[in-house]
Amino acid sequence: MQKLTDIFGDFSLNSDENEFVNCSHFNLFSNPHKLPINNVYIERKRHELERSSYGNWNEIKDRKKNKKRVTTIKEVIPALHESWIPKFVPAFEYIEYNFNIPEEDNIYFIENNKHYLFFLEYLIKCSYQQFWCNVLFKENVQDSLRNFILHPIPIYLYNDLSKDFQDVYKKIFNKYYMVIRRLIVFRESETEYMPTSVGAKYLIEKKLLNLSITLTITLLYQDFDNELINILSDIYFSCEGQEKFIEKEIENFLKEFILISDMIRGKITGKFDPGINPVPISLDERPKIFNLVWVNSVVDYCLNMISTLSALFRLKSSTVEIAYFLDVPEKLAKNYDGIFNDIYEILESRIELIKGDNKYKRIMEKIGQARIKFVDNFHNFISFILEKTISLQGKSKEQEKYLEMFIDTITTALEYEIFICDYNHKYPLSQTIEMFEDFSLIDKTRTAYIITSLNSLERNDFIKDKFSIESAFINHLPKPILYDEPQQSCSTNHDEEAGSINVPSNDIDDKIQSVTTIFPHLGDGFVEKCLEHFDYNTDQLIQAILEENIPPHLLEIPFDSIRIPPEPLPPKPTLAYRGKKPGFDDALAMLNDKKEKEKMKTLVMDGIKYNNRYDNTDDEYDDRDNLQEPDFVIEHDVEKYEKVNEEELVSDTSYSDNEFDDEGKPIEKDNQTSFKAFCEDPAAVRARYEARMKSRRGKTDVVGKPKGQGQEKNVVNARQKKNVQKSSRANHNRKGGAQFKRNKGMIPS
Questions:
Q1: 3-class SS at 681?
Q2: How much is the pTM?
């Protein structure tokens, strides 16, 4: 996409083309006290002849008598008053170019707009006072100025004109810029000026300044005169008493943008979102038969819509936050997939018929420009969130709001495969996430999920390489400006002076990329010089840019300068080894080296030093907690250890039930068998355990007679006491019982 300076050339108020304007004015304005022009009053003398002397020519010739009959009238008139305007003002209308009709039918565009050029030259030649009197008090002048700003030819359609039409429009474009500069810059000299607030009030009252006009001027001249756009933004958005109206106007514009983008997608796909009432727009329905003219009109409409949104974000960055809460980021991703998906399908179905058509090539160029603007506008939201996060560094609670905004925005965009893949190609999400991790405590689990999901996406098959975003970004970005050799030589000297720190070229590229991700308007060459000044510390550089604290010598470097990478170093000679020379004479000696084998043997033997102290048949030894190596070896036999607690006896896994018979009598070791059933009958185990406990505890008095035969008094008292006291303490060991069942192969309840 060409810049305005490449197409329209330089603007100059001293152009020779101004010479043909043959309008002379009497400049009666003087301001010795250097007051604002709105506070200046001019005294005018007017001579009137008595009515009785009209027609008496002989008496008029007599000068002495004539002086007596002439009355001098003095008037004090404000400098800005309609009485200072001449009777005839050449306020011709601007004729709009119609792209929907053949070029030969637009012949009036050339003829009539030559008169419009004459009108613009007239305003340029006027003095400061005469210019503002015409603008404020001549309605036809106001209408003529609005005609062009409401119906200009967008820069991306300029190449669609033939040479004759281009020449006329180029002149109008240049002259209108001079008029706009006089309208917006309210000071021309020390005696010719007015306060900014007063001038803005005049323009708003005469309907020469509103959001629509401001956006159009930005679209036309932002690439040429950045200072003019900054002045325009300050004037419009700082109008006293207009804050609420402007905020409402911005909100309405964003809502209209959402609605129009949905309508364009609906016109192309034939499907509208539920709950949306279609509104009429200047776009025809999709024809049943393929029509390249209709596709061209859709692309132009879409490009104009997204360019206007870019102009709004360029004028006032705070509008990005308003747009975020209106779900504009999601609409950008959704409509990107919907619009360009179907357009590519339409073109692909007729590619053999239209491939050689010049209109087809122009359509592809404009599609590339539109896709870039979609991606750039989405990146404005990510940059806004990142800047807020960086400004709140160290305040984790306040950062959480913006971290959630970032994750929600990217997660929502992941639903639209084509868009998120194209966005990731131009602005790698991995680098953006690294920036968030450097300045905040973002959840790395969620960011890892985003990266994983992004890497798993596949682009649709119908988008070929020639339609890919890669070619669009490479071919249609504005061409970088190359600078003269003296500037390059100066920067080279500065490099030699500041080159005290040697940083690998790959690291420099990564650091430059991390900075340009946040500030895409900065060139790689400018960022490299700034990094050299800040010792390649990206955090300090970003902080300096945000605080507008860049050193003066860096401000002299153009912000959009390109970076010329250093020449690659010659390849190093291949060495057989690096570092310390090995102690082997040949390869055979190196292969027979057994040093590592001896080290491994020592390591293994040290690890099994104390393994024999434990019973390797015990399946619980590796489950015990706090198992530590003792500082000494136990000399006595483990079997000699006697347990004194009966509950430990129950839970001890090394204790065998075969030491007692069914009657509870101990079994001699000679009669014991080494065989243990893998899973015994639970009834037999319980019976054996009950007999053992009975033999240990002896006879109790709670055993009564069979049911229905009555009980003794002591049995009744014992049972009553048990019923009363059984809830006050535990009457069994649940943990021990469960472990006992596991040891016997049972499943505890």
A1: coil
A2: 0.58
Bridge partners (DSSP) of residue 70 are 49
24-28, 327-331, 361-365, 597-601 — which is least confidently predicted?
A: 24-28
Strand partners, 345: none
Contact 91, 141 (CB under 8 A): yes
Distance CA 6, CA 10 (A): 9
Instruction: Give 402's contacts (C-beta < 8 A, 6+ positions apart).
Output: 385, 388, 389, 392
Question: d(Cα 129, Cα 30) in Å, to the nearest integer?
Answer: 10
Q: Is the predicted pLDDT of residue 461 greater than 60, yes or no?
A: no
Structure tokens at 345: 């399908």
Beta-carbon neighbour count of residue 283 at 10 Å?
17
Side-chain-facing half-sphere of 159: CA atoms under 13 Å: 14
Percent of the chain scoring above 70 in pLDDT:
71
In a 3-state reduction of DSSP, which class is residue 77? strand
Q: Which of 337, 261, 256, 335 is nearest to 301 (CA)?
A: 261
479: helix, strand or coil:
coil
pLDDT at 473 over 70: no
**Cβ–Cβ under 8 Å, residues 230 and 218:** no
pLDDT > 50? residue 518: yes
| DSSP 8-state code for residue 56 | -
How far is Cα 338 from Cα 462, in angstroms, rounded to an integer?
14
* Residue the block writes with tokens 């300044």: 209
The answer to whether 25 and 126 have CB atoms below 8 angstroms apart is: yes
SS3 for 727? coil
The answer to whether 310 and 215 are in contact (CB under 8 A) is no
Tokens of 76: 């004090």
Which residues are CB-neighbours of 615 under 8 A, at least 6 positions away?
621, 638, 654
- 263: burial class by Cβ within 10 Å (0-12, 13-18, 19+)? buried
- CA-nearest of 36, 132, 17 to 82 is 132
Burial, 326: exposed, middle or buried (Cβ in 10 Å; 0-12, 13-18, 19+)? middle
- For residues 224 and 11, is the Cβ–Cβ distance under 8 A? yes
Instruction: Look up residue 576 and give its two tokens.
Output: 């057989």
In the block, which residue shows the tokens 């001293």? Answer: 14
Number of neighbours of residue 476 by Cβ within 10 angstroms:
19
Judge contact between 229 and 314, C-beta under 8 A.
Answer: yes
CA 383 → CA 170, 330, 428, 612, distances in Å? 36, 16, 13, 65
Question: 134 Cβ partners below 8 Å, 6+ apart?
Answer: 85, 89, 123, 126, 141
544-573 burial by CB neighbour count: b if 16+ within 10 A, else e? Answer: bbeeeebeeebeebeeebebeeeeeeeeee
Query: How far apart, in whole angstroms, are the C-alpha atoms of residue 221 and residue 214?
Result: 11
pLDDT one-digit tens code per residue, 225-245: 888 898 999 888 888 878 888
Q: Are 396 and 440 in contact (CB under 8 A)?
A: yes
Structure tokens at 146: 């609005």
State how far the Cα of 658 lies from the Cα of 199, in Å rounded to an integer: 110
Q: What is the 3-state secondary structure (H, E, C) of 609-647?
A: CCHHHCCCCCCCCCCCCCCCCCCCCCCCCHHHCCCCCHH
